[in-house]
Design a protein that fits this description.
By secondary structure, the protein is an all-beta fold. The protein has strands at 21-23, 29-34, 43-48, 60-61, 71-76, 82-87, 94-99. A 4-stranded antiparallel beta sheet has the order 1-2-3-4, with no helix packed on it. The N and C termini lie far apart (39 Å).
């Protein structure tokens, strides 16, 4: 038995320049990174959708985590309150952690 369904581009995010992605536990928020649009460095973006059967909306820069340096390699915790990512803002690539507000 195959553990995965047929391979297909992720609706709403194909051809955006996004590199890899991390989904929230409810699969309605995606965190991704890449050189998107006019960006000259990689940044972290997010997009949401109202239901898992719907495509994601437009990507938006994730506030308070991007810098003038490159950010990449996103991972979000199962409760959606901890984001880990790589940044070279200190002259070399290191892992950073950002904490969000708990959902009500």
């Amino acid at each position: 038995m195959d553990p995965f369904s047929e391979l297909m581009p992720l609706a709403g995010l194909a051809n955006t320049g996004a590199v890899t992605a991390s989904l929230s536990q409810d699969e309605r928020t995606i965190y991704t990174w890449g050189k998107i649009g006019a960006s000259t460095t990689s940044d972290i973006y997010t997009a949401t959708r109202p239901d898992v059967s719907m495509p994601f909306g437009d990507l938006a820069l994730l506030p308070n985590v991007n810098s003038d340096s490159g950010e990449s390699d996103t991972w979000i915790s199962s409760d959606g309150n901890v984001l880990l990512f790589t940044s070279d803002r200190e002259g070399m690539s290191i892992i950073f952690m950002a904490r969000g507000e708990p959902a009500d």
